[in-house]
Amino acid sequence: MMKKLLGLITILSSFTLAAQVDVYDSGGPLMPEQASYDVQHYDLSLQIFPDQKAIDGKVIVTANIVQPMHWLVLDLDPKLEIKGVKEWKGERAKDRSFHRKKGKVWIDLKNTRVSGQKIKVEVLYGGQPRVAPNPPWNGGFQWATTTQGAHWIATSCQTNGADVWWPVKDHVSDEPETMDLHIRVPDPLVVATNGKMVKKETNGDQTSTYHWHLNNPINVYNVALNIAPYEIIEDQLNSVAGEKVPVFFYVLPEDLQKGQVLIKEIIEHLEFFEKYLGPYPFRSDKYGVAQTPHLGMEHQTIIAYGANFDNGSMTGGKDWGFDALHHHELGHEWWGNLVTNYDWKDMWIHEGFCTYMQAVYMEDMKGREAYHTYMNNMRRFGNKYPIAPASTQSSQEIYKAPIYSKGAWVLHTLRFLMGDEDFFLALRRMCYPSPEMEKITDGSQTRFVTTNDFINLCEDISGEKLNWFFEVYVRQASLPILHSKVEKNQLSLRWESPVEGDFLMPIEVKMKSGIKRFKVPKEGITISLKNGEKPVVDPNNWLLFEKLTPKK
Questions:
Q1: Is the CB of residue 176 less than 8 Å from the CB of residue 40?
Q2: Do the bridges between strand 490-496 and strand 525-528 make them parallel or antiparallel, or are there none, so unpaired?
Q3: Which of 5, 80, 326, 479 to pair with 37, CA 20 to 30 A apart?
Q4: Beta bridge partner(s), residue 493
């Protein structure tokens, strides 16, 4: 798949002996042993023991070899026990020896495998997985109970990695093409997870096994279990692609009526994203929402929803007139799951773009003034870390940067620079490079992307060089400074850039004659004013800058 190959080619071109520095971190430089194989399929079978807060199961890893390798290196939390490893060759399985180094599992393949070969390895494991200290930000398993006293279980692991609960290649650059999950739970619990449900098997011992299959590549941190005595609300999306997409809301029985109300808004959110970004990407699976005991997460095709039906749950308590938590997590089906960064250094494409879409939703509902109000409300962030640095990052490193709100503001300012038509076309083509790709549902619609891809796309669409813009706003932390001075019926404006080279941002000024847009050359510009005129620079707050006004 294009998505996987782009990531692997880039990673393989810059081998490093470094590995993730902490068991509970994810990403970072990819070690050569893990860059040497490309996962095609995971088959995860797991039994859940809620009373013991324990799990027992196996995962079968099918992978293609892309560079010579003798060891298959997987990731798994040392808290979990490995009971055995086998390699399958056809119908025969042979035991394989292994050893563990911190969070790495080194499996001896007995002989060197070369490019083009395929391997299939089974790992038996179990134990009591890490309990999430602060889900979803610090993840693992969450063993909760509903208000009716039933078991309510969820996983979350974005910043910590999927290896907190199953053996896996824990790196954002490698996604399996497909995946199967077989999850066994006590009755009457229901398992809601990624993909499409194949069947439910009743085992005769008061447990049931839920078999789910994913038709599309998935980032492994997005694989998630949601387990409760769910009621299932069903609806459908009439997609712009011409298909009817099944929509499911897995809701706690005590919240069934609230869920029946919210699902109408869920459909409205889906229609909004399709309008601006193109069809819902995973139409061959489903769109699902599962009520969770943690706030939320963008688990592909099964969004974690823990907002408790409170519109202000993720906006500091402010109700903007829509369920902001669901809207944000749904946005990740495009920004994060359809297009994915293969290195966490470009995570602003996930978080900043999603955050910006909420302002666009305000505009779509209530107009331009509401859009600016929403943007101005989030103009609170530091400038200590760049939001898209050039160097490789782990997940926990990149989240030190203001990738949400500053990322959204960078897009806001870019929209001013490019104009609405070009800007919104760039967003849609970042998701789907062509109208033809909007029709695809076989998995090849998913792609790995980088900040450079977005820069090149914006330049192609606008016909302008824009590297100067992104070098200032995403590659380093400091904001440009705007020197503004009114003296003797003249307004002087000059940019001071934190990087070398011209900073070519135009500026709007409100005067008695109306709002005018001015190009500002490197040496600055002087604008004549009428007697007593009091100009307002950037009257609609489009620009991201620090204003420097001379002392009187």
A1: yes
A2: antiparallel
A3: 80
A4: 484, 525
Share of the chain above pLDDT 70, in %: 95
| Summary count for the chain: helices (H), strands (E) | 11, 29
Say whether pLDDT at 150 is over 90: yes
CATH of domain 340-473: 1.10.390.10
- Pinpoint the residues of the chain covered by CATH 1.10.390.10: 340-473
On whether the CB atoms of residues 505 and 475 are closer than 8 A, the answer is no
Residues of the chain with CATH 2.60.40.1910: 481-548
pLDDT digits (tens, 9 = 90+) for 2-35: 454 444 444 443 434 344 558 899 988 999 999 9
Q: 60: phi > 0 → left, psi -120 to 50 → alpha, else beta; which?
A: beta
Structure tokens at 490: 């003249």
Give bridge partners of residue 58 from the DSSP assignment: 45, 124
User: Strand 481-486's sheet: what is its strand order?
Assistant: 525-528, 490-496, 481-486, 546-548
pLDDT in tens, 161-212: 999 999 999 999 999 999 999 999 999 999 999 999 999 999 999 999 999 9
State the maximum Cα–Cα separation within the chain, in Å, rounded to a whole number: 91
Mean per-residue pLDDT over the chain, rounded: 94
Q: What DSSP string runs through 14-51?
A: T--S---SSTT--BSSPPHHHHTEEEEEEEEEEEEETT
How far is it, in rounded angstroms, from Cα 28 to Cα 60? 25
Of the CATH numbers 3.40.50.620, 3.40.190.170, 3.20.20.70, 2.60.40.1910, which one belongs to the domain with range 481-548?
Answer: 2.60.40.1910
